[in-house]
Amino acid sequence: MLQVCKVTILLVCVAATVHGGIHEIKQNGSKYKIEKVTDSSVRQALESIRRSASNVKELDLSGNPLSQISAADLAPFTNLELLNLSSNVLYETLDLQSLSKLRTLDLNNNYVQEVRVGPALQTLHAANNNISRVICQGQGWEKKMIYLMNNKISSLLDLSNGCRRRVQHLDLKLNEIDTINFGDLADSSDSLQSLILEYNFIFDIKNQGRVVFSQLQTLDLSWNKLAFMGAELNAASGVTSINLNHNKLVLIDADVVFSRSLKYIDLRGNGFHCAALRKFFTKNSHAKTIATASVQRATGSSEEQCTGTTLRSGPFCCEDLPAPFADRLIDLKRKEHALYSGHGSEKDRAECEKENNARQRAIEALKQQYSTTIDEATRWKQEKIRLEQNKKTLEEQVANGRRTHDELDEEMKRTAQQMELGGTGAGDQNLLNLLRLIVKRYEDMYIEQQSEQNNAIRDWVMYQQKETQLAEENARLKKLNEEVNLAVASANSTLQELNVREKNLATFLGSASA
Ligand SMILES: *[C@@H]1O[C@H](CO)[C@@H](O)[C@H](O)[C@H]1NC(C)=O
Ligand SMILES: *[C@@H]1O[C@H](CO)[C@@H](O)[C@H](O)[C@H]1NC(C)=O
Ligand SMILES: *[C@@H]1O[C@H](CO)[C@@H](O)[C@H](O)[C@H]1NC(C)=O
Ligand SMILES: *[C@@H]1O[C@H](CO)[C@@H](O)[C@H](O)[C@H]1NC(C)=O
Fold first, then answer.
1. What would the pLDDT profile of 61-91 be if each residue is shown by its tens digit?
2. Which range is the signal sequence, renumbered to this chain (predicted)?
3. pTM (2 d.p.)
4. I need a labelling partner for 347 at 20 to 30 A (CA). Which of 11, 37, 299, 398 fits?
């Protein structure tokens, strides 16, 4: 049953029952909003406004329980400029490349892994997803604002070339980036105004091609793992605001200079060597002047609260470290290693936990910021899709696990047979027992190999001695040869001389007898 309400000037309302679901369509000029639409009714809903398809410039599908939507469904809407898919339950890849006029896409609060957009895209809202890849079709000449907070981006290169050209605002807060190369944003060097990289895991910054961001106002690198403020930061020397608080900063390159446009600098929560910070402030006296006001703005107090030190340079805590760079860096490396291998000290672990908690709080705040009110029925449908998706993932994991186990089992049995372990009964052995036998056999083989290797090393030493002897012999022979050659040449020249004299004599005798 499909009923179409009477068309009013401002509001068109279509109600349809499809598989028991009722969707509502609201219209205001070229803006359309579809509510209470599900995967099974979305085609029908779109079909019902197809007659005025070319009039649709904005389509709002936010807050529905949609787990999929394709560019094909939206193909009739050739003038679509804004598509709002926020707060749905979209999974995996969302491919909207063929929507050639789409300028604004809102995808906040979904489960998307990969986004593909067309050449007209200017604004992408995609906070709170699972995105590890963004592809912007075309050359990317449009100025762009890209908001990707709380996703799974691990490198700037996860954004295609088109996405990294003419970018004005790029927000990658709460992603998984560990190194940054400003060179990857070279095509935005004269457009980029803000770059937000807060809460990643960045320990290294490069600047291939020495890019300078001439329009950059805000650079936020707070809550990362940087140990060194390198000269690469000069890519942002004209910023008005720089945030490096809560890193692992110890040293500052002597060449780091910020312009007098700087109005805000936050270096709290680091482990600076006092001399490095002092030197920085000597060279950047303007930064020192605004630092106190910056700390005041960030914390309400004019100085950073220090733990484990009473020393300061400007408003920031610092320490006098004997061999600062080496010691600290070795310590950081050790910590990293210890944490990865699970052997960290209590203190390290507490620090790590504190950082994780801060990150978690930031994630919660971001989710809160973009949360929208969704009616109970829709929320329930979304939850159902989420559970189904989780179930699917778990089933895949189980199937993968089972496959791996079976493959391993086969492999083990084959290996055992090849090694002639456990006699003919290898097929009856359980996996663990077989593994133990195989490991034992490998250990025996290793010991055997070691002794062979020792022998080989002995042979090798002997061989090298022989080679040295031969080389010496060769040198001696070569010298001898040269001497012989010299003797031959001198004999030859004597012979030549004699020949000349003989000829002269013959001539003289000839003329005398004539
Ligand atoms: C329709 O949109 C215009 C501007 O785009 C707005 O001013 C107006 O309030 C809207 N009307 C309704 C009923 O939402
Ligand atoms: C998309 O819809 C959400 C929820 O209705 C709204 O808060 C958001 O501003 C919309 N996005 C755009 C780009 O209009
Ligand atoms: C997020 O993406 C990863 C792969 O990048 C996938 O394994 C995982 O299931 C996804 N999580 C959700 C909630 O979609
Ligand atoms: C001796 O010298 C002549 C002329 O200089 C040369 O042509 C000839 O090849 C030499 N012979 C030898 C054996 O070096």
1. 999 999 999 889 999 999 999 999 999 999 9
2. 1-20
3. 0.75
4. 299
Q: Looking at the CA of residue 496, tell me the nearest atom of ligand 4.
A: 2
CATH number of 177-321: 3.80.10.10
Domain residue ranges in the chain: 1-137+144-149, 177-321
Banded pLDDT at 488 (limits 50, 70, 90): confident
Q: Is 496 in the pocket of ligand 4 (CB under 6 A)?
A: yes
Residue 360 in this model has a pLDDT that exceeds 50 = yes
Distance 72 CA to ligand 4 centre (A): 91
Tens-digit pLDDT profile for residues 230-250? 999 999 999 999 999 999 999
Do 1-137+144-149 and 177-321 have matching folds?
Answer: yes
* Tens-digit pLDDT profile for residues 448-486: 888 887 887 787 777 778 888 878 888 887 887 788 788
CB 196 within 8 Å of CB 218:
yes
CATH number for the region 1-137+144-149 comes to 3.80.10.10
Q: How far is the CA of 8 from the centre of ligand 1 (A)?
A: 14
